[in-house]
Specification:
This protein is an all-alpha fold and 197 residues long. It has two domains: 14-65, no CATH class; 71-194, AhpD-like (Up-down Bundle). The protein is built from eleven helices and no strands. The protein has helices spanning 19-29, 31-36, 41-46, 50-65, 71-84, 88-100, 105-113, 122-137, 142-149, 154-176, 187-194. It is globular.
Length: 197
């Protein structure tokens, strides 16, 4: 895949901010974004289709803020999706987030190796295998399901499956639109230290 340096659809200019676009800005960031614009260029790009993007971001807000799956486990599967789906944007965003919640450099490097990296516990391996199966086979085999259901209730299983599926889909959207990683919050340094897919 080519290096992504310029989006295929440019971010909205301030003069192009309609009320509908501002409503999109506010889904994740609240009233300040309605007034001042979003922190991330990706939102300003996606806001060009408010009828699509507003419900999509509302759905994402649930996965990020209200999911019943523990944060660490959500970040683990999201990192692995990002790496294996070759999404520079997702990878660097979630490397940043995973470090905030305590992922070590060794764990971030192990994500690149997948479920067979030696440092993973049984549950971590199962989560990574779930990503492989959903990404490659569009399903989860019975053995993996049984291992997961021993840890998660039905609501958590739905949250987990939707999280993995969402980030696989969003990796394709980001790559298809060629939305480059956000440069803020040390993006270049993160790319140099942790690489990109």
């Amino acid at each position: 895949m080519p290096e992504i340096t310029k989006p295929r659809i440019p971010p909205l200019k301030r003069s192009e901010w309609t009320d509908e676009a501002r409503d999109v800005f506010a889904v994740l960031e609240g009233p300040a974004a309605w007034e001042n614009g979003p922190m991330y260029d990706s939102i300003s790009i996606l806001a060009q289709n408010p009828a699509l993007t507003r419900p999509f971001l509302t759905y994402n807000k649930y996965l990020m803020m209200n999911s019943t799956v523990p944060h660490r486990e959500r970040e683990l599967v999201t990192l692995y999706v990002a790496w294996t789906c070759k999404s520079d944007y997702e990878w660097l965003s979630h490397v940043r987030e995973s470090r905030k919640i305590g992922f070590t450099d060794a764990e971030i490097e192990a994500v690149k190796l997948g479920p067979d990296a030696p440092l993973w516990c049984v549950l971590d391996r199962t989560l990574l295998r779930t990503v492989d199966q959903m990404r490659d086979c569009y399903s989860i085999d019975d053995e993996t399901w049984a291992a997961l259901i021993a840890h998660y209730d039905h609501k958590q299983m739905m949250d987990l499956v939707f999280t993995i599926g969402n980030y696989i889909m969003f990796a394709a959207v980001l790559n298809g639109l060629r939305i480059p990683p956000e440069v803020g919050e040390g993006g270049a340094a993160l790319a140099e230290k942790y690489g990109t897919p």
